[in-house]
Amino acid sequence: MATLYLASGSPRRRELLAQIGIPHTPLIATIDETALPGEPALAYVERLAREKALAGLASLAEPGAACVLGADTAVVLDGLILGKPLDREDCLAMLKRLSGREHEVLTAVAVADSQRCLTRVVSSRVRFRPIPPAEREAYWASGEPADKAGSYAIQGLGAVFVSDLQGSYSAVVGLPLLETAQLLADFGIPCWQHLR
């Protein structure tokens, strides 16, 4: 069975892979995450996931028997990608825009080896209840939203804002487990079965 590398520094993605029994080694794949002019959000997340996987593969001394998994998540509202907040004001503005509304969360996963790179993109819909200004301020003060796409973490304190979720919870966290397991199986890497 091929060695799997996770091209991500995200502890959430490591935890999700561990949840389905996938042994892996984390590595950092640095890429330019700037959106291309006119690039649709779906194409953007798929491209970044693919580039992370391929950059991770290229960084290995001996990539022959290895697979690299890359992933990217984007929060999309009114056709615009809401990235990680630049500062307090940016975070508060994002939370105000998301308050009482539904938004889309797109998560792409890519797996690459020396022969091929396959990708999947998952779309989920998340609705927030209205978030009063004092709660937005308190949430920023918690420190949680500072490095999160869309300025919130559904697996953390941000869960209290979510009134409805349609789609994959794990994809909103950062890695769609069903699609990830299916992709890894295509590369001969089974999930939890190795625990038996």
From TrEMBL:
InterPro entries: ITPase-like_fam (IPR029001), Maf-like (IPR003697). Its cofactor is a divalent metal cation. It catalyses: UTP + H2O = UMP + diphosphate + H(+); dTTP + H2O = dTMP + diphosphate + H(+). It comes from Metapseudomonas boanensis. PANTHER family: BIFUNCTIONAL DTTP/UTP PYROPHOSPHATASE/METHYLTRANSFERASE PROTEIN-RELATED (PTHR43213), BIFUNCTIONAL DTTP_UTP PYROPHOSPHATASE_METHYLTRANSFERASE PROTEIN-RELATED (PTHR43213:SF5). Nucleoside triphosphate pyrophosphatase that hydrolyzes dTTP and UTP. May have a dual role in cell division arrest and in preventing the incorporation of modified nucleotides into cellular nucleic acids. Coiled coil: none annotated. It comes from the Bacteria. The record marks 12, 73, 155 as: Important for substrate specificity. The active site is at residue 72. Transmembrane segments: none annotated. Keywords: Cytoplasm, Hydrolase, Nucleotide metabolism. It is an enzyme of class 3 (hydrolase). HAMAP family: Maf. Its EC number is 3.6.1.9. The keyword Cytoplasm applies. This is dTTP/UTP pyrophosphatase. Belongs to the Maf family. YhdE subfamily. The keyword Hydrolase applies. It is found in: Cytoplasm.
